[in-house]
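FAQ: What does a multi-protein file look like?

Like this. Sequence, then tokens, then the next protein.
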Amino acid sequence: MVESIFQTLLLLAYFDVALLSIAIANYAISASYLGRESRLSRSRIERRKEKLLGKLKELRETTQIESVKKEIKEAEAEQRGLGIRIFLLSWLGAVILPSMFLIISFICAVIGINTEILSQDSEVQRFLEQQFIIVSSGTLAVGFMILLFVIKTIDSSARQIPIPEIEVMFENRERATKLKRNEKVSIGLRAENNGEDLAEDLELYVSFPPAFKIGRGPYPVYTHDASHRYSNYSYVIFREKILHVGTWVVDYIMITMPDEKKIYEVCIDIKERKIGTLKQKLDIEIVD
């Protein structure tokens, strides 16, 4: 019995030392993500605030008090979550916090091994050894759980690579517009980067149905062949070398509207170095 208790305490001490070394190694990895996560968290919080203010304004007009409270709670929960992520990647969260529990566990294990310095009574020694095993095991478990949370956060940060998010709209930021038939107008297309990283080598392939006539401009006009999914559609290509986060660019196309009154789809292929190819559509309704 005495030997088994001694071996248990010794094993706990070994585990503490091993986990302490893992905690220090974790910070070597988490530190490389800390700066990026801090920057992204600030931008996410700002975007969340802007989104929340917009929703609150809409909800306030409809007097939906419960919806307002729900939106505020969701925003607060997201902000707390981002704060916890940054803390777990920092020196305090990745090393100091788990190490504190592991060191307490190690001290309890060492004292438990040497209970004879506390009492000469064998019964008291056995009782103290059992208590130190409980305390050492408990603090070891807490330290180990914190290490798991740190590792999970590191893994999440490694997977969530910041990428650009490109949205294409009309110049008025709408995805649909109404124009008169046979009207010749200059249409502005607005490309926004609402993502978390700058867009590089951005290309917009804007395809119009055959009923539209694209006028001359500072862009070449092409036509998809019969094998393409947009068969016989005319298209133009707009290119941007770099589009920073939170910025936009507007390109103009001179177009003559068709004669038939109906809703036409303008098909847009977005190509970018990090995100590959995306597809979006805008609607043009032809009216009198």
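And here is the next protein:
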Amino acid sequence: MNKNVSLLLAASVMLFLQGSAAALDYMGPPVAGLKKGQFRTGFDLSMGEMDVEFKGEGAKDTLNDFESRRYLWSLGYGLRDNWEAFVRLGAGGAETEGGFDGDTRFAYGLGTKVTLAGDNTLNWGALLQVGWGKSENSYDDLLGLSGDGEIDWYEIQAAAGGTYDMEDWRLYGGLFLHYVGGDLDVEDPFFGRTFSFDLTQESVPGGYVGARFDLRKNVTLDTEFQVTSDAWALGLGLAYKF
């Protein structure tokens, strides 16, 4: 691993240690990277923040700086030479502006990638992935409510783009759509009842760019940055192909 890759990895790890994580999931290159019958296993991380609308109980507002932590083990399989599928299992949590600092609970996801065109230097493709998460803790102030809070959410990301071989590393990126849905419940002891709200965010367009480095044979490291009008995220993916 050369000096530039080592510095990039160190800087990325420091960012993860200093902050919470994101509501956008790591995506990786938008093309299939496995031959038929091949497997890939590794770990995916993401960090950042976004704003999500919620409505219910006759009210409508925005959760500013909605953040979710994602630490996921992934397993991918080559269905064909140009088509792969993957699952993710791990842990995640959430934080929001207004005093909710949720615990870490089970999180999971799944997705697929396909290569549509290209050669050994430049390839074009698409991906689709869905992730689920849950977090619980007390809420200090949500529309004047305080009590035990629970957030369940899911995200859908659909992307199209390409990868370009830069000899020592690969550049990747493209455009994507991001959708968020879920539920927010606050059990307020003062009112003696639970207040329920729907989390909603319509499909928001965004863009992302990343770099893939070969650390050793069949071992890769991805670093990427995603951005939409309501969110940003930094992602890391470490994988072994066999």
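Q: Is there any per-entry metadata?
A: Some entries carry free-text notes. For the entry above: Residues 2-22 have pLDDT under 50 and may be disordered.
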